[in-house]
Specification:
7% strand, alpha+beta, single chain
Length: 83
């Protein structure tokens, strides 16, 4: 699954620089995750880095984006090859 940021986000700015795929950006009110770029850090790390640094634990799996590890890895490979 891709991840999402809930409205519990406090805009602390720590998640954005941790994302190796540049999937996190500031939205209209809180940070958002682009599901087309989120791989849950598959291909980079063993755990999502944004979750590791989030002080309010507001980054759950996005239930609208059920994906397997293989699908996430394929997305990672597309992102890397696109440069």
């Amino acid at each position: 699954m891709a991840l999402m940021i809930t409205d519990a986000c406090i805009n602390c700015d720590v998640c954005e620089p941790e994302c190796p795929n540049d999937a996190i950006s500031m939205g209209p009110e809180i940070y958002v995750i682009d599901p087309e770029r989120c791989t849950e850090c598959v291909g980079h790390f063993s755990e999502p880095q944004c979750r590791q640094v989030c002080p309010v634990e507001c980054i759950p799996n996005d239930p609208r984006r059920v994906e397997t590890r293989e699908q996430l890895l394929a997305r990672y490979e597309r992102i890397v090859s696109a440069g």
